[in-house]
Design brief:
Shape: rod-shaped
Radius of gyration: 51 Å
Helix content: 40-55%
Distance between the termini: 60 Å
Strand content: 15-25%
Number of domains: 3
Amino acid sequence: MRRAFGSVRARAALGATVVVAVALVAAGLAVLRVLQGNLVDQAGLHAQVEAREVASKIAAGTGYRELDLDDDTPVQVVDDERRVRAVSEDLQAVTGTASPSVRPVSVAPDAGREKGGNEGEVDGDVRYVSGSARIDGTTADYRWAAVEATDPGGEDVTVYAGAPLATERDAVGTVRQAMLIGLPLLLFVVAAVTWLVTRRALRPVEGIRREMSAITASTDLSRRVPEPDSHDEVARLARTTNETLTALEAAVEQQRAFVADASHELRSPVASLRTQLEVGVAHPELLDLPGAVEDVVRLQRLAADLLLLARLDAGERPRADSGVRLDALVRETVEQRTGDRVPVRTDLTEVAATGSRGQLTQVLGNLVDNAQRHARGEVRVSVRTDGAEGVVAVADDGAGVPEAERERIFERFVRLDDARSRDDGGAGLGLAIARDVVLRHGGTLTVGEAPGGGALFEVRLPLPG
């Protein structure tokens, strides 16, 4: 049972049925109430007409014994002392009026007319009360209309005329019975239609689920879920799912390539170091200690770069040091590079940014290292402001970067000059690390053509405030 109502189709059908049931019950009660009110008002109107007719006769001077009371409509005339002055002949019992008696009191005939010949009057107000009456042995509920009248002798009486409520109750009962029969049928139709419509609407979702389950079981990220031809939410879900699969496939491929490239880069220094150590064990006099140290340093740098990339991929945010002077970072970096192949010239403007001083120093060092490897005779580093950004530009006078390769050089383990030695060219991680770090700082790193030829790398960082 829990599984049956755990599906979206079942919950949608149940929810729609409950909503329609509540709406129909509320509407049915309102209809019954309105119908009952209208029928009661009609009964009251009928009783009012009869009561006014009798009251008019009394006001005109007709004696109480001479009133021709309709047998179909029970009538009772009561004076101010609650004495019954006239009553319908077949009326055997009454409730709801001013007096429960159905026997007229004995008074002098036509006493009222002897007191004077003035015309009586009928009050314009009408009161309605509910009660019952027994006529010819049958008791039923009635709607009583009470109209006050004054006879020509000045005596005030109240005329009660009743209209039966049996018609109202029969009509309301018929409508109620029809609703009780029709409501379950209508709810069944609503539930069935909702089930079928929801099933058809969710059929593409089931196809997406099956395909995702198959992809999970096979680990084949090249597969895609079916996209329906409709332009609804399900189609957008399928497209978004395929886009997610594409991004996931690209990330997995990048991770595999990264692991393969890292293993390849680690193989050379590890093999060289092992060879040197094995030679040193067999022939200590032939051990190349400087070369071994150089291989260890290279391994250490590569391990540090790989660890930093792993932290960046994990979403690590840089520590925000306020007031990092970009011009001071450039000056310190240049002063520490005493053994560079080509000189580094600077053009500095005081600019302060927010970010990690250590990571920004590594970015600057990677860019200067890259410029040193490709420059012919000079490297220029400048710091300036451009609107709300601080700009660090590193330019060399080398061959430059072809326009088609300007984005590819920021990929990991990419070296445009495949013939270049690894010792001279590095592992191809410097520019990738630099861009990732700059992006984590909310900035950009781009490459273009320097004014005098060569490559121009620009780091743009948002300024504080």
